[in-house]
Amino acid sequence: MGSSSGDSASVPDYDGSKVSARPETSLLVLNAPEPPPPWQELSGRVRRAVLAAGNRPSSSTKWFVSALLGLFPILRWGRHYDRKSFRRDLMAGLTLASLGIPQSIGYANLAKLDPQYGLYSSFVPPLIYAVMGTSRDIAIGPVAVVSLLLSSLTQKLVDPYTHPEAYRSLVLTATFFAGIFQASFGFFRLGFVVDFLSHATIVGFTGGAAIVIGLQQLKGLLGINHFTNNTDVVSVIKAVWFAVHQPWNPDNFLIGCSFLLLILIVRSIGLRKRKLFWLAAITPLLSVVLSTLLVYLTRADKHGVKIIRQVKEGLNPSSVKQIQLTGPFIGETAKIGLICAIIALTEAFAVGRSFASVRGYQLDGNKEMVAMGFMNIAGSLSSCYVATGSFSRTAVNVSAGCETTVSNMVMAITVFVSLLLLMKLLYYTPVAILASIILSALPGLIDIKEACRIWRVDKMDFLACLGAFLGVLFGSVEIGLLTAVIISFAKIIICALGHKIEMLGRIQGTDIFYSMRQYPSAVETPNLLILRIDSPFLNFMNANSVKERVLARITGGCDAAKERAGEMTRFVVLDMSNVSHIDTSGIPAVEEMHRKLTSDGVQLAIANPGWQVIHKMKLAGLVDVIGAEWIFLTVSEAVEAAGGCGNEEDSSLSG
Amino acid sequence: MGSSSGDSASVPDYDGSKVSARPETSLLVLNAPEPPPPWQELSGRVRRAVLAAGNRPSSSTKWFVSALLGLFPILRWGRHYDRKSFRRDLMAGLTLASLGIPQSIGYANLAKLDPQYGLYSSFVPPLIYAVMGTSRDIAIGPVAVVSLLLSSLTQKLVDPYTHPEAYRSLVLTATFFAGIFQASFGFFRLGFVVDFLSHATIVGFTGGAAIVIGLQQLKGLLGINHFTNNTDVVSVIKAVWFAVHQPWNPDNFLIGCSFLLLILIVRSIGLRKRKLFWLAAITPLLSVVLSTLLVYLTRADKHGVKIIRQVKEGLNPSSVKQIQLTGPFIGETAKIGLICAIIALTEAFAVGRSFASVRGYQLDGNKEMVAMGFMNIAGSLSSCYVATGSFSRTAVNVSAGCETTVSNMVMAITVFVSLLLLMKLLYYTPVAILASIILSALPGLIDIKEACRIWRVDKMDFLACLGAFLGVLFGSVEIGLLTAVIISFAKIIICALGHKIEMLGRIQGTDIFYSMRQYPSAVETPNLLILRIDSPFLNFMNANSVKERVLARITGGCDAAKERAGEMTRFVVLDMSNVSHIDTSGIPAVEEMHRKLTSDGVQLAIANPGWQVIHKMKLAGLVDVIGAEWIFLTVSEAVEAAGGCGNEEDSSLSG
């Protein structure tokens, strides 16, 4: 055949003279060119990453323009932006702001920061994203899960109540790191880090986090002074139990619950009548206004209703000096930044992809990561904490008819105005109303329907989902994530090494040999055992066990073999088409298998070994041990050869 | 077709009416029976484990007899044991003892125990193994790597020099745990735990450990009083540097080196003249005797030569009371026991399997583990520390012509005699001679040739080997093992997710479609793109990337596609024969791929999905989205269908 392995000097060439009387195509297996070394893919990835930005343009000016257009998509679509689109974006942006402002204050509370930090984070990051982002729908701002993550991880280092300054500085540093990580993921095209969390674990983790966040709101809802710093269910219920057995003021609870009820009722109306969705979107803001007025008029704060009190007016102050790149917590802060970066990206991608898919456009994952990274770096320098794409607000944004990221700009400007003018009005806002706004956003995070679907389709995935859920609920956010990642990876390893050995049979009327269990109509070939190794690996973890199973099949260990105990198996075809990786433990296993079979008078043939596999078998000299003439391109060729050989052997034995 | 999916009520059946004009065999894919659930394999394993011992005999007496024969193989082969075999075993046992006694004392020193504990461990465990083991060749006793492991891990808990009693008690408890773990691995057929360490990592780890052990011997060789407790190269060299800059006595070094030289020279003679191997085997004992005499006669101990001094005479004392199953270190001790259990089994299996393979018999892994477990449990109750099969002594045992485990008994009895009578003679034995005996055993543990072979065959395996080696050398024994395990598993995950997309072409003259890179003679099909997903998984880690790569191939991202930019791809066949697992992240990816392709006017066909894959695609409704008529058994069927369809489309477009 035409192919030669010229580039592999140490590997012998196999020609027809050695292996006569077999189909020519079989030679193809042995004379395949050398496979690319494992690091080639990696270097290719890096090369693509470096060269990708500019698409190799002719001049440096062109390169600069194309890089600029790549980095700032607004320059592309901004040229065609018209008044009609702007009107729609304006409406969407205002609706978004009415939901975003109260939510941001609530999430700042969840992150254990002063209320204005939530608003800061709804001002700078959306502006940056508006010029750099590729999604038209995502609404940027602080989100519940990341706020919880940030506070639960950072408060282990510094107590937010006794050292608010130091705590804030750590949060901002973590945000800075998160931005750096996100931008680097984008530049180096490391999108796969976001894929570390499977869909199932995200469903479980988000559900668990939602319940944890809800439980944290009991502090505000019940007006409790001394609450636990732990986030697990047991600690929180204990703390609540302890608090309600002290004398407590039910007013906070009443205000919170009545407004929560209001928000939920209006939302359910909005869900039924699509035209009224804006009513649902502005109810949180209305609730804030109403409850603040109520407290102000009745002076309820004198009777035990907790109010926000200290709110700083004015625009984002610079926080460059609060970023601490030295000090004892630098490592921990970087870790928190990494975790938040990944979780934030995961949420943003889930939101962005689902809406992009509905609206029929593709999200550029790498550009998204760069945009998110820059917005968080800029945010961390201007007193913002980690912002990302939010589920609830993106849905409102889309429902309100947003066309481009301009809706984010409109929202940011609205937040800017309220930061300048309206902050004083928040003085009398009851804390309980923030809790009820957060609580109202939680049902959307608990996706029982999806969990049921996961259970139906994939039990192992459901286990990962459940592990993440229970881990967050009864351990901590970290434990939940760790459980999820471990279960996901354990699943990969278990599946990869779940070396089933399948007996193959001929699909009637064809030359194809498929699993007899999957295709019960496939028929066995007499005097011949065709086994397929159903594992991508033949390595240290499973080589011995595969060897033992194959030998057990032949010496009568399995039922199918027992059925035809009368017959003698003379020939074993090992279909290795599924084995794509063999290592230095796998090769001796095949060698021993061959030795044992040969000593029992059984001939071993190998069909369709993977590219790396046949290469390594040649390198290790295994091909010469088995005999080049017993390696085939397809199972049917091996079976044909066996037919000829089997008869010869029979005659030689009887003769 | 004959097959029906009667046991899967929720899954629709597909018949010919829906999917006309396609080969009948294609229906087989859709109507395959439901695959066994993932836990079935596990439960099957447990069932086999429980039922296996007795082979389901008819009466309880028979069951008892067969269980007894299974547990004590000596009852089987003992009946045919004759005088000729005994004579050979006697000679082998005596040779073994002459090597084993000095080695055991040396290894006890390495384990930071008194010399007699090494001899204790060469008495009880070999006796137990002799009646329970299935290998005829393995020589049982303490070994270098496990001794190092035990001392380096245990001395972190208790200092062996200031609290020798407590230290010894922990070592014995760890030995007890090791025995329990080993026996349970055997009973529950968990042989795979031994496979956690790949061949490559064992080569690297053993090599690194040998160097570390060698460095530890500098203490005895140089007669250093204050040595470091760390095992890494840097600490040891620092300690030695510090010691040799103090006034020191060169006599220890002279004695050690001269006898080391003697042992090595005699061994090299033994290697050249196979008949003289026994000379090499008894040289260590001779060296002990000679050096002891030398010291006694010259009273060199008065001039700075360190001698053993305290040696307790008499048989193994009971150590039942020293096993501490309560207390603060119980968890740590169990961990040490587990690590030692696995490493000891790994070494024993490596030794046993290689000699069994040479001598043409099969080792029963589960029985071996039970035997090793019992021997270590019994050992821990009689003042022995972890024993296992030793490389160097097994080789001597085989060379000396052992026939059965009786040679182990002979050795044990010889040790027993010397424990009773000869211990006093060890009083004047110089410590340096123990160091030189240990040093002389090390070259066999450093297998540079094998490391080169690993480098040649598998670069990734070599990385694991190097990681283990450097980890042991510059970190600690634990770090080395951990590095090795992490690299090995990372390799599995990287390989499992290294989702290459291969373009397939037709092997000329056949209906087979194989990778065009592996088989350059394969030819492309016009108007048609056949892509194979070369990953066993389509899951959260790679689904997005696979989707993007497939789409990039079609929209002209790759060079091959650019070459035929003039042509329009109308039809994509996705060969999923290598994909055996899909999860709840993989299914949406295929769905999105299909949606995008359809919107571009490209038809997607799927060929040969794995059993679990097609089942989950049915469950998730993906089959209905793609259309049952676009799912095929083989690539060639899909290509045929595409040919028909492509022409139709062409005519409809041109018409």
Q: What does this entry look like structurally?
A:
2 copies of one chain form a homodimer. The first copy, chain A, has 655 residues and is mainly alpha-helical. Chain A has 2 domains: 84-491, no CATH class; 499-654, Transcription Regulator spoIIAA (2-Layer Sandwich), CATH 3.30.750.24. Chain A has helices at 26-30, 38-52, 60-71, 74-77, 83-110, 115-121, 124-132, 144-154, 164-187, 199-216, 218-222, 233-244, 250-272, 277-298, 330-359, 365-381, 391-399, 406-421, 431-441, 448-457, 459-475, 477-497, 543-554, 559-563, 586-599, 611-619, 622-626, 635-654, and strands at residues 140-141, 388-389, 500-506, 513-515, 528-534, 537-538, 571-575, 581-582, 603-607, 631-632. In chain A, the strands form 3 sheets. Chain A has a 6-stranded mixed sheet with strand order 4-3-5-7-9-10, with helices on both faces. In chain A, a hairpin with a 6-residue loop joins strand 3 and strand 4 (513-515). Chain A is elongated and about 100 Å long. The two termini of chain A are 38 Å apart. Chains A and B meet through helix 2, helix 10, helix 20, helix 21 and helix 22 of A and helix 2, helix 10, helix 20, helix 21 and helix 22 of B. Chains A, B: Residues 538-642 form the STAS domain.
Number of domains of chain A: 2
Number of helices of chain A: 28
Largest interface: A-B, 83 and 83 residues
Q: Biggest sheet of chain A, strands in spatial order?
A: 4-3-5-7-9-10
What structural class results from the helix and strand content of chain A?
A: mainly alpha
Give the % helix of chain A.
55-70%
Rg of chain A, alpha carbons: 32 Å
What is the overall shape of chain A?
A: elongated
Q: How much of the sequence of chain A is in beta strands? A: 5-15%
Q: Work out the number of β strands of chain A.
A: 10
Biggest sheet features of chain A: 6 strands, mixed
State mean pLDDT of chain A (0 to 100 scale).
Answer: 82
End-to-end C-alpha gap of chain A: 38 Å
**Quaternary structure state of the chains depicted:** homodimer
Low-pLDDT runs of chain A: 1-12, 16-20, 557-566, 645-655
